[in-house]
Amino acid sequence: MTGPDAQTGTHEEFPCQQCGAKLEFAPGSTKLECPYCGHTQQIAAAAAAPVVERSFADALRELRQRPVSALADNGHEIQCNGCGAITVITAQAAACPFCDSPVVVPIQEDRATIVPEAVLPFAIEQRAAGEKFKTWVTSRWFAPSDLAAKARRARMDGVYLPYFTYDALARASYRGQRGTYYYVTETYTDSEGKTQTRQVRKTRWTRVSGHIQCYFDDLLVCASKSLPDKLIAELEPWDLAALTPFDSRYLSGFMAERAAIGLEDGFATAQQKMVPTIESTIRSDIGGDTQSIDNYSTSHSDVTFKLFLLPLWLSSFRYDDKVYRFVVNARTGEAVGERPYSTLKIVMAVLGGIALIALIVVLVKMFA
Length: 368
Known about the structure:
By secondary structure, the protein is an alpha+beta fold. The protein folds into two domains: 24-175 and 208-337, no CATH class; 181-207. 22% of the residues lie in helices and 38% in strands. It has six helices and 17 strands. The chain has helices spanning 56-61, 126-138, 147-152, 229-234, 263-286, 343-367; strands at 24-25, 31-33, 40-42, 54-55, 65-67, 76-80, 86-89, 104-107, 112-114, 118-119, 157-189, 195-222, 244-245, 255-257, 290-319, 322-329, 335-337. The strands form three sheets. Strands 4, 6, 7, 8, 10, 11, 12, 13, 14, 15, 16 and 17 form a twelve-stranded mixed sheet that branches. Strands 1-2-3 form a three-stranded antiparallel sheet, with no helix packed on it. A hairpin with a 6-residue loop joins strand 2 (31-33) and strand 3 (40-42). Residues 1-12 have low confidence and may be disordered. The chain crosses the membrane at residues 346-364. Keywords: Membrane, Transmembrane, Transmembrane helix.
């Protein structure tokens, strides 16, 4: 990995060769760019360091960790007093990117953190993300009239979110019942007193048991707790095929959140994501016309994982003392967000609807 020496604690600087200012990663490229004079510097491809998955069992015994300062040039951590998010930054931070709290506390100790395997670099620039934000805000129905003006003053922060992927072979032993449909003829009396017949479906159940296995590849688990699950899910899919071996230069000028979910807890979440596929496979194995799963037990083997950083543009803004977030997938441009509603506009719309219905009723009676 290009960057500081983890043992000596020294830092690799990325100064501009023309003016000496600090270079920052340019979204949509493989270059560092000077924000002052525009000089660029190519990031060499790390062909000799492919993105690899690590053994889950080995990692639990000895996680590969390095000081935060070793992950990013001049990197240091801050912690938000509002939401508690811990973020690695390479410059100064005026407020928390996740909740817009104005109070962030520097963490003085250079603590160890898990080393990411890879990074998905920013591909969309801040200006383009800001335009998506403006379009999104102005297109919200029943939004407060002053929302657009307040949102325009909000920051748009570039943040890397930590993610795990897990691979695993899941084996399950189950007990259940196979249902087979059959039909019987029933006689009944209809509403006119006539005798009729009809075919009624019945189910014949047979007890069964068996074993199945499923292989899971790259189950994605977000290792952040700073954003609502709904927003995180709506940012998918990510183009994970474009993951690049971790290089600290991709973090230059951006923030990176420290993983708030541990390796074991992340795998517990991955196991929950496996459940629908496992149960679907069991039902397929049971066969018949319908199935009932009484119980099953699952074991996992050959578990591997990756830890990497995914990029997003994030704007957190406050409205009536409540935090709302707007997020852009900095690879695909997918934009999702939270918004306040105007109670007055909703009430007026409802009253207008009632008035319209009343008018239609009056007109119908007049011309009936």
